[in-house]
Structures are given as structure tokens and as C-alpha cells.
Amino acid sequence: MRVLLRRAVFYVITAWAAISLNFLLPRIMPGSPADALIAKFHGKLSPQAIEALRVLFGQSDASLWQQYLDYWRNLFSGNFGISYAYYPTPVADVLASSIGWTLILISVCTVLGFVIGTGLGMIVGWKRGSWLDGLIPVTTLLSSIPYFWFAICVVLIFSIILRWFPLSGGYSVTETIGLNWGFIGSSVYYATLPALTIVVASIGGWLIGMRNMMVTTVSEDYVRLAEAKGLSKRRVMYTYAARNAILPSFSSFAMSLGFVVGGSIVTEVVFNYPGIGTVLFKAAQAQDYPLMQGIFLVITITVLIANMLADILYVFLDPRTREG
After folding, report:
1. How many CA atoms, within 13 angstroms, populate the side-chain half-sphere of residue 76?
2. pTM summary value
3. What InterPro entries is this protein classified in (predicted)?
């Protein structure tokens, strides 16, 4: 319990620091959307019009400390401001309309990549030196290919040349959004290529990491003792070797789940997928600071929660952590 309490305090302090930086960084950056819009008119705007634009974009004349207090107050009330890129839609509504697409696509792909990669890595590591080691160069090559180039190649082959899948989008415009089979089937159909890109690109990293840990774990004394007892190879592989070899990969998987909310920006932009990665890209182009702040805040909190849950599970999975 003392270990968990110390880590909980650490995560609280980290969350405060991350949220404070999220508030401070846009305010120390040069320029703003309002200044950029004012500059386009080359001095043709009246002082009243300039002031109205600044108020419209939420630029306050209050002190930095007062803005900081207002930021925390709005944060607890769920008010992230008005989006510039999607004006006059509130940031919370923009996030709510896009985060679901990302959560479903990226979380499913992350889990699939982890399960397939660690499963293959476990088998390859157990049967090290066999022909299965030939999988490592192939998966490493696929994971080392530039992400955007791989996504473009997938679009070229399956959407333009073969025309098996749609070129972009998240669902057919003829379908109505809702819990109906037409919309669900259309969403799965449109998400197939982005999912394929993410899963194929992520398998290599999980495979080689798990394979190396299996090779190290197999040489441990407790694994050799289990083999000397005459236990079945399947039991030794799963219960003794893989259970301990997967612990480092489990921590990385928890962090990957935390970054799920941020989406896969390159994939979503290439496929024009209506997820939060595309929204973040448009917000950066439009210098939409409130929207970027909202997205970064959600990503930060999600990563911290995912890591905290991983630490809690790690304490229960590995008794050595409790002893430390």
C-alpha cells in the first residue's frame, strides 16, 4: 500500500505540472489567431473592431495569475473554451464528436498489435534459432518503413488500383449515425485500411521486444528447474517463461493505451478519418490554441491514468515490486 501511495502522489504532482505547462505554453508562443487575422487587413480595422476580435477569440487583459485561476476553474467545470477552427462550436463538443472514432479504431488496433506481436514474439523466442527467426527481419522492415509512406502505399494499392476499399472518410454519407447495422458495417468497412496500416506497422516492435525477453528469461534458473521437474513444454513456456517475459511489454502496452486518445495523426490525415488526430492537425494549422489545449490535456490525463493502472497491476503481478 505504501508503494501505491507514493506513486499516487507522484502522479498527482505530474498531472499538476502537465496541466500548468498546458496553460503556459500557448501564452508564451508568439502570435495568435486574432493577431494573424488583424494583420491580414493591414491596418484597415478600427480599434473597436480589433477589440471585438480579441474578445471573440477569448484574449483576456487579466493578469497571468488571474488567467491561471480562471483556467483551473473552467477546467473543473468542463469549459475548454470556443474552438477557432470550428467556430462557434465549444472545444468540448468538438472533442466529444471525434474522440469516439479514435478510441474505437486506435484502441482495437493497439490491442491487436500487442496480442499478435507478443504472441509471435513468445513463440519465436521459445523456439529461438529455428526458421521462425526469419519473421524478425520481415516485421522489422515493415515497422521501420516511414508511417506516412506505408499508409499512402496501402491507399494506392487497395483503394485506387484494386478499389476494394474507400479512399477516405469514416463512413458512407448515405448512412445515418447511430447504433444500426448499416452504420456499423459502413464504419468497419471504412476503418479496415487504417486499422491494417496501424496493426502491421506496430507488430514488429512488440515481436522483437517479446522475443528478446523470452530468450533472456528461458535461461533463468527457475525455468530450467521447471523443465528439470518434467513439466510439459507448454506449461513451462506460458507459466514460467512468458509470464515473466511479458512484464516489460505490459508496461509499454499501458503507455500505448494512454496515447490512444491522441490518435494516429498520420494515419487519420492520410485516410481523412474523422478522429481526434485529424482534429489536432486542423487545430495546429489554424493556430486553434483552445482546441489544442483541450486535446493535449485529454492525452496527458489519459496517459497518466493508464500508467497509474499499469503500476497498480504491476505491483500485483510482480511480487518483487512490493518487496522493493
Report:
1. 5
2. 0.73
3. MetI-like, MetI-like_sf
Identify whether the C-beta of residue 204 lies closer than 8 Å to the C-beta of residue 143: yes
Q: What does residue 41 show for φ and ψ, rounded to 5 degrees?
A: -90, -5
Phi/psi at 82 (nearest 5 deg)?
Answer: -105, 135
Has residue 1 been placed in a domain?
no
Q: Are residues 67 and 131 in the same domain?
A: no
Single-letter amino acid, residue 52: A
The one-letter amino acid code at 90 reads: P
Half-sphere exposure of 159 (CA within 13 A, CB side): 18
Instruction: Give the H/E segment covering residue 59.
Output: none
Do 96 and 147 belong together in one domain? yes
Give the tens place of pLDDT for each residue, 115-128. 888 888 888 888 87
Model confidence pLDDT, tens digit, residues 188-239: 888 888 888 888 888 888 888 888 888 888 878 888 888 788 888 888 888 8
Rounded to whole angstroms, the Cα distance separating 307 from 115 reads: 19
